[in-house]
From TrEMBL:
Domain Ribonuclease H1 N-terminal span(s) in chain numbering: 157-199
Name of the protein: Ribonuclease H1 N-terminal domain-containing protein
InterPro entries: Ribosomal_bL9/RNase_H1_N (IPR009027), RNase_H1_N (IPR011320), RNase_H1_N_sf (IPR037056)
Gene3D superfamilies on file: Ribonuclease H1, N-terminal domain
C-alpha cells in the first residue's frame, strides 16, 4: 500500500515538472539513479551561462572597487604623513643651522662688536627658518665687502658675487649662497685666489654687470677707482689715479672696507688709507666732516 501510494504521488509530481520537490519520506522508487540524474539536470538548468558570467563580473567589479578605494586611502595617507615628516625635518634642520651659526658668531664675539660688523637675522616664513647675513649699511659701488675668513682658516676658493642681495667677495660658498639664493638673476663665480675673485668683481663693476636685488647698477665715476681692503693694504685698479687732495664729496672718493681689527667707521678708515699717501691733516679733517654729513644724509 505504501509503495503504491508513493508511486501515485511521485507520478503526480512528475507530471507537474518538479519531481525534486517531492519529500522522500518513504522508500525510494525502483530506479533511484535516474531520479537523481533528473534532479541534478533540473538544478543546473536554473544557472545559465549568462547568469554565471554576470555573477563573476559583479564579484570581480566589487572586489576591484573596494581594492582601489583602500589603495587610494593608504596612498593618500602615506603621502600626507611623508609630507609632514619632510616639513618637520626641514624646520629642524633650519633651526639647527641657525643655532650653529649663532654660536659661531657668539664665540667670535661678533654680536658685541661695532656696528660695522655683520649681524644675524632669523626669518620665520611658512614653517621655514633661515639664517641670513645682514651687511653693514646699504650697498654702494665704492664700498666693497670682502668677507674675511676666520683666523687660521685657509679658504679653498674665493667667490665673486656680482648679482645678488649684497655683491662682494666671499671666502666660502655658504656666505656667497646667502647673497644669491632666492635673488632673481643671481650670479656667483668661484676662484682659487682672492686676487682673481677681486679682479672679476672689478671687471663686472666697470662693465655695469653688477646687479643688486634684481636691479643693475650703472657704472659712473667710481667704476674705475674701486679699491679693496687687503689686510691693511689697498690695491687700486690699474690706471687709477689717487687724487692729491681729498674731495669734499665722499661719494666721489674711495672708501675701503675696514678689517676686523680696526675700530672706527668706514670714513675714518678710508681717510687713514689716504693719509698714508701724504694727505695733510687739514684735508683729512675736511674729508671726515664731509663724510659725517654724507652719512647723516643717508
Amino acid at each position: 500500500m505504501a509503495r503504491a501510494r508513493f508511486q501515485s504521488i511521485y507520478k503526480a509530481a512528475q507530471a507537474n515538472g518538479s519531481p525534486h520537490h517531492f519529500p522522500l519520506l518513504v522508500s525510494p522508487p525502483a530506479q533511484p539513479v535516474k531520479v537523481i540524474e533528473r534532479v541534478a539536470r533540473h538544478s543546473m538548468s536554473d544557472y545559465s551561462f549568462s547568469s554565471i558570467v554576470d555573477t563573476i563580473v559583479w564579484n570581480l567589479s566589487t572586489d576591484i572597487i573596494f581594492f582601489a578605494f583602500y589603495f587610494l586611502l593608504v596612498v593618500l595617507s602615506a603621502r600626507v604623513i611623508i609630507w609632514l615628516l619632510f616639513r618637520l625635518f626641514a624646520l629642524l634642520r633650519s633651526c639647527l643651522v641657525y643655532v650653529l651659526v649663532s654660536l659661531r658668531f657668539m664665540a667670535r664675539n661678533d654680536l658685541d662688536s661695532s656696528e660695522d660688523q655683520p649681524e644675524m637675522m632669523m626669518r620665520v616664513n611658512s614653517m621655514r627658518v633661515t639664517a641670513g647675513f645682514v651687511p653693514p649699511g646699504p650697498w654702494s659701488p665704492d664700498r666693497i665687502v670682502v668677507r674675511e675668513p676666520p683666523a687660521g682658516f685657509v679658504p679653498r676658493k674665493w667667490y665673486s658675487v656680482t648679482r645678488g642681495r649684497y655683491p662682494g667677495v666671499y671666502y666660502s660658498s655658504a656666505w656667497a649662497d646667502m647673497q644669491t639664493n632666492g635673488c632673481p638673476g643671481n650670479h656667483k663665480e668661484g676662484f682659487k685666489l682672492r686676487e682673481e675673485a677681486e679682479d672679476n668683481y672689478k671687471a663686472a663693476l666697470r662693465g655695469g654687470q653688477v646687479q643688486v636685488d634684481g636691479t643693475f647698477w650703472r657704472p659712473g665715476a667710481l667704476s674705475n677707482r674701486v679699491q679693496f681692503e687687503d689686510q691693511g693694504r689697498s690695491s687700486a685698479v690699474q690706471g687709477a689715479s689717487v687724487p692729491s687732495v681729498i674731495p669734499k664729496e665722499p661719494r666721489d672718493h674711495i672708501i675701503v672696507e675696514p678689517d676686523e681689527s680696526f675700530e672706527g667707521d668706514d670714513s675714518t678708515q678710508g681717510a687713514w688709507e689716504q693719509l698714508d699717501q701724504g694727505i695733510s691733516e687739514a684735508d683729512l679733517s675736511a674729508y671726515i666732516d664731509a663724510a659725517e654729513v654724507e652719512q647723516a644724509r643717508r
